[in-house]
Design the sequence.
């Protein structure tokens, strides 16, 4: 999506900013910068994870940034899906649609673990995940031991 020109993105999507998704991206990029030593005289454990607290559980992972210099089949598939969505949305706009519903932005993640609140022992490991911003309740970071669980109610 970052590689698209603004002409390819329908106006309904261009004329809005999702503050929650923007905040999440800035937060994740800041933590990643600390982990990679990009900020002088400040460091953080390289195993630090970004934690997204959602309605369904805790999602941890890294921000997905596709490589510029090589073919990435996962990102290519994502781009094809978004182009099809944008094309369909453009046809709806031509037919007079002026407002979208459920138009939240998303954060692309890789190396994802989802720990549902209902059963922390049954976590899901995914190579790639699209987290819609309306599912994000909060953000945190830290180095969680793999056997540590988040207790919602005691």
Sequence:
């Amino acid at each position: 999506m970052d590689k698209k020109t603004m002409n390819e993105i329908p106006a309904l999507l261009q004329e809005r900013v999702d503050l929650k998704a923007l905040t999440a991206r800035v937060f994740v990029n800041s933590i990643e910068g600390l982990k990679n030593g990009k900020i002088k005289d400040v460091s953080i454990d390289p195993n630090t994870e970004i934690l997204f607290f959602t309605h369904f559980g805790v999602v941890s992972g890294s921000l997905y940034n596709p490589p510029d210099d090589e073919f990435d089949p996962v990102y290519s598939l994502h781009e094809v899906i978004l182009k099809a969505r944008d094309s369909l949305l453009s046809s709806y706009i031509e037919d007079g649609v002026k407002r979208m519903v459920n138009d939240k932005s998303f954060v692309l993640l890789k190396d994802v673990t989802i720990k549902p609140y209902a059963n922390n022992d049954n976590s899901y490991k995914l190579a790639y995940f699209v987290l819609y911003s309306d599912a994000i309740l909060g953000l945190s970071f830290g180095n969680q031991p793999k056997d540590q669980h988040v207790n919602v109610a005691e």
